[in-house]
Write a sequence for this structure.
């Protein structure tokens, strides 16, 4: 499979990555190599293997609805790139959420 | 251009042809739990900003989510309440997008394995029509934080210079209920939401307060020639912050589309926001900019599997649901649609009514007292009917005493007011204080004669054709009898004795 089948510029845009045209080419080739590897895997006979969404052989891991202490606000906001009063401050938002 | 929308906005005309609206609703409901969906931070509205946060809900690297069992049970109950199927296998997926109120840059949600599938929401419209709207699914996800857009004059996004984020809401369990496009008018859309709300409140799974954001909804709206099977191009309406704005926004969007079509324009698939002030929807995003969420199974969470016995246990835990109750009231007890909803929507009132009817076996008379005198006293004293000293048994006695004619309606009201605050048995009070209605004509005649003798002038006026004076004279008979005379009999005997006596 060739790298041409991955629209690297589009994927980069979704991931909010600003790539130069050199990078688009370089990562395109690398992603293409990954896809080739997947193609090799696809040759394995898997007709008898059930599809799975998880590799851990476990289900129903849950917790009771019991409160635990939260972090102190100042500790949390100290880690913020920018704070304003009790809030995280973020740059101007340009559009509605997804 | 020619557009007419008939009353109830379901009948629509575009250039002489009949059109109908097709509406589907996605609504988000915050679950009422002690803690968030995937961490032990508290799930409460109105805390100080950024005080209910931890490494999990702030999306710190390496922090691992663990699902809240109660939230999962709550969504299963919500599904069961509408007759949904609970698939034996469910998992959580990541929905990837960037927004400042979402710390992980993905939202844990469910893509192809929701906790519930299908189901039907039944309800009555105010005009008495019964409607059924199919549910597509209800899935579980985590809520996002809240942003305040600062620097703009009206606190909205447009014109803001920066935003402030509070992550207290991030990670709160959120169910997304998706309906099929079965809704046909703005009025129906609101009735559908009210039916969801009523059920979730009864189940105790959510407060469902639009003003606090625990219920939020978007509507997909399109119109098509009535009876067509193909769907028209839809728009998605957002920013509806109250039931009233849902009704106005959808009604407005239906008209906008009808007007566009009648001018020969095409409807563009886009997201439009309801502007409460301008009373119109405004384009937010066209389809071309639609997001690509790249859903995939969340590797941090293992699947959830339900055995039949788990589902049976949750089904057993379901409380009396509003829908079957409304059906019983409306179809069996013949209570009007409006009154049935009054009973159901006042906490405890339907229970009280049903307990009383079980004893009185007189639905209509009981209903009249419950929605009349009892509701009046409840408002006046700011006490719920169920917490007054007037028990369903006491009310059943009153219903019985009045229906047998043993007390008149005035005495009934007096006794209700007394027992409301003091408690006790109405039957015993009537017996002990001799408050029984006097229905014996001879006894009533005694009171009537007394009144005729004392009120000569009024009697004369009545004789001269002043019909209204009779009301006053009946009042005097009631007063003389200390409220015990049967008022109908009093009127009858007054007329007879005045006619039969000389001026």
């Amino acid at each position: 499979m060739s790298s041409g089948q991955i629209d690297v510029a589009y994927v980069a845009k979704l991931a909010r990555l600003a790539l130069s045209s050199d990078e688009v080419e370089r990562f395109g080739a690398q992603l293409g190599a990954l896809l080739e590897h997947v193609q090799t895997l696809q040759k394995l006979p898997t007709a008898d293997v059930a599809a799975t969404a998880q590799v851990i052989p476990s289900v129903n891991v849950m917790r009771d609805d019991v409160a635990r202490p939260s972090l102190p606000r100042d500790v949390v906001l100290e880690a913020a790139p920018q704070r304003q009063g009790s809030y995280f401050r973020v740059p101007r938002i340009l559009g509605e959420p997804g | 251009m020619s557009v007419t929308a008939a009353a109830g906005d379901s009948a629509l005309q575009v250039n002489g042809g009949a059109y109908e609206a097709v509406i589907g609703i996605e609504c988000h409901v915050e679950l009422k739990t002690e803690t968030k969906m995937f961490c032990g931070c508290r799930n409460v509205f109105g805390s100080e900003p950024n005080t209910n946060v931890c490494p999990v809900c702030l999306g710190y690297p390496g922090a691992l989510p663990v699902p809240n069992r109660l939230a999962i049970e709550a969504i299963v109950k919500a599904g069961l309440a509408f007759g949904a199927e609970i698939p034996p296998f469910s998992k959580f997926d990541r929905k990837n997008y960037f927004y400042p109120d979402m710390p992980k840059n993905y939202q844990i949600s469910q893509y192809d394995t929701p906790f519930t599938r299908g189901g039907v929401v039944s309800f009555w419209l105010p005009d008495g029509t019964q409607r059924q709207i199919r549910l597509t699914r209800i899935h579980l996800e985590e809520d996002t934080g809240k942003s305040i857009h600062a620097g703009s004059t009206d606190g909205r996004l447009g014109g803001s210079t920066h935003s402030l984020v509070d992550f207290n809401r991030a990670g709160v369990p959120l169910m997304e209920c998706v309906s099929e496009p079965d809704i046909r008018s703005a009025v129906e859309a609101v009735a559908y939401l009210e039916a969801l709300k009523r059920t979730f409140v009864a189940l105790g799974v959510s407060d469902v307060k639009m003003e606090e954001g625990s219920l939020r909804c978007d509507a997909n709206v399109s119109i098509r020639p009535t009876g067509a099977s193909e769907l028209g191009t839809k728009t998605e309406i957002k920013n509806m912050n109250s039931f009233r704005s849902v009704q106005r926004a959808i009604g407005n969007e239906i008209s906008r589309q009808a007007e566009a079509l009648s001018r020969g324009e095409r409807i563009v698939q886009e997201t439009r926001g309801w502007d409460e002030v301008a009373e119109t929807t405004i384009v937010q995003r066209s389809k071309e900019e639609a997001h690509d969420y790249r859903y995939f199974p969340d590797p941090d969470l293992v699947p959830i599997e339900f055995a039949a016995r788990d589902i049976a246990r949750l089904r057993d835990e379901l409380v009396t649901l509003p829908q079957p109750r409304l059906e019983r009231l409306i179809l069996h007890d013949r209570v009007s649609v409006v009154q049935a909803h009054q009973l159901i929507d006042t906490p405890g009132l339907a229970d009280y009514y049903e307990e009383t009817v079980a004893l009185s076996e007189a639905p209509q008379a009981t209903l009249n007292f419950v929605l009349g005198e009892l509701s009046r006293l409840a408002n006046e004293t700011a006490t719920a009917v169920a917490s007054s000293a007037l028990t369903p048994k006491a009310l059943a006695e009153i219903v019985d005493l009045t229906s047998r004619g043993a007390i008149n309606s005035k005495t009934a009201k007096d006794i209700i007011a007394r027992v409301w605050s003091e408690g006790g048995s109405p039957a015993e009070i009537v017996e002990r204080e001799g408050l029984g209605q006097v229905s014996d004509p001879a006894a009533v005649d005694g009171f009537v004669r007394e009144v005729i003798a004392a009120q000569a002038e009024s009697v004369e006026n009545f004789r001269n054709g002043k019909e209204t004076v009779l009301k006053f004279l009946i009042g005097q008979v009631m007063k003389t009898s200390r409220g015990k005379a049967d008022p109908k009999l009093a009127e009858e005997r007054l007329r007879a004795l005045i006619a039969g006596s000389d001026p």
